[in-house]
Every structure is written in structure tokens, then in C-alpha cells.
Amino acid sequence: MPKSRIRKKADYTPPAAARQAQAIKLTSRSWVAPVMLAMFLIGLAWIVVFYVTDGSLPIDALDNWNIVVGFGFIAAGFGVSTQWK
């Protein structure tokens, strides 16, 4: 039985419009990292102070809601971290 011919496929060439490389603009946001870390540390300190003082500090009137406030600061830090490029 005779062998079949192997056809060469043409290499893929992208359309002319897609060939031009577009520059990606990354703006420097130097404020993001310090604010993010500050929010994390404030939230952590808030919760630690609450536990160390047996609930009398940072705000006595909030009682156990002080934990929510601390985690709120930490969540805000995660929210700020989405701006980091």
C-alpha cells in the first residue's frame, strides 16, 4: 500500500491589528501597602487589647462588638489590598 503524502500546515499568523503590542499602564500606588498594613495592625491590636483587658478596653460600651470592629479593620485592609498593582 502506498504511503500518503504529509501536508505541511501553514504557521499561524495573527491578524495585523493584533500584532501591535499595547503598553500596559500600571500606575504606582505607593499609599496602598502602608494603609493595608496599618489596617491589619489596627484590627489585630484592637482585638488583642480587647482580650488582654477582659473587655474593658478599647470601648467598654461596645462589649463583644469590639471583636467585630477589629475584624472590620482587618476586612478593610483586605479591601484596600485589591487596589495594589
Can you characterise this structure?
- This protein has helices spanning 16-19, 32-52, 65-81.
- It has 85 residues and is an all-alpha fold.
- Helix 2 (32-52) runs antiparallel to helix 3 (65-81).
- The longest helix has 21 residues, at 32-52.
- The model has no long low-confidence stretch (mean pLDDT 85).
Features:
85 residues, mainly alpha, 49% helix
List the helices and strands and how they pair.
Blueprint lengths: L15 H4 L12 H21 L12 H17 L4
Helix pairs in contact: 2-3
- Overall morphology: elongated
Q: What's the total number of strands? A: 0
Give the biggest beta sheet: none
Backbone structural class: mainly alpha
Nearest-angstrom radius of gyration? 28 Å
Helix content: 40-55%
Put simply, the count of helices is: 3
- Low-pLDDT runs: none
Helix-strand sequence? HHH
Question: How would you summarize what this structure contains?
Answer:
The protein is built from three helices and no strands. The chain is an all-alpha fold and 85 residues long.
